[in-house]
Amino acid sequence: xxxxxxxxxxxxxxxxxxxxxxxxxxxxxxxxxxxxxxxxxxxxxxxxxxxxxxxxxxxxxxxxxxxxxxxxxxxxxxxxxxxxxxxxxxxxxxxxxxxxxxxxxxxxxxxxxxxxxxxxxxxxxxxxxxxxxxxxxxxxxxxxxxxxxxxxxxxxxxxxxxxxxxxxxxxxxxxxxxxxxxxxxxxxxxxxxxxxxxxxxxxxxxxxxxxxxxxxxxxxxxxxxxxxxxxxxxxxxxxxxxxxxxxxxxxxxxxxxxxxxxxxxxxxxxxxxxxxxxxxxxxxxxxxxxxxxxxxxxxxxxxxxxxxxxxxxxxxx
Length: 317
What we know:
Elements: H1 16-19, H2 24-62, E1 65-66, E2 74-75, H3 79-85, H4 88-121, H5 126-133, H6 140-150, H7 157-164, H8 179-204, H9 208-216, H10 221-249, H11 253-258, H12 270-280, H13 284-309
Antiparallel strand pairs: 1-2
């Protein structure tokens, strides 16, 4: 008669579900990683709360008050918004701003896209990319002053060249017709290189195999641009458009150093009008109301752009 051995039972392998159960050590490491991440995020979060969230909340509150820095804020309800709706200068400034945005975005997007495609299809030289980005390294104030001197009606080298080839001098920044297009093109000159590099980065994500297959099928460069480049670049282009539209609506410094809102309010963009109301006439409540209106307009435009351009979706499978 044999006696069964009393050896210990063999260890059964863990099932898939048991593998997913975190151990105490893993939980401790996760808590440590979370604490470390919070330490790194804390300075940026503090800056976000102090310099963005709090001013925004306070600005919304001030928009319902009459405030001039010298006396305590007085609650006036919707008076500032009613005044804004009936203010012809506000609507004129909004119209001027929209004109600037249309010119700036149209010219800048087309130019940046052309530069990005040329950089991607013809050359990827780091030197050329650096040259393209050079104007962006200059501040808006410096760029505005440089172009103010270049385009000066009497002494500017730009008008000297125009007269040398037989044309009359053009008052680029002193004429109501020329002023806003000129300011828009100055900002296009400064920002187009940065926008082009953003689009160039998006082009790098498009596989070269698609272009090679299209060439084998006999597709021209123009056809490849419309059939391959534009559809696959759409998410990046949409984000770039959202960023540039928001930035264009906030134009201020170029106007401040070149035309100061003139001539005859022809360049009195909304941001400059808000600044003048707050720091020129000390109407901080009314300026806050216009700022809130601008915030609402930009939020609506951003949401609309995001939905129409399907910025969160990609055609790359």
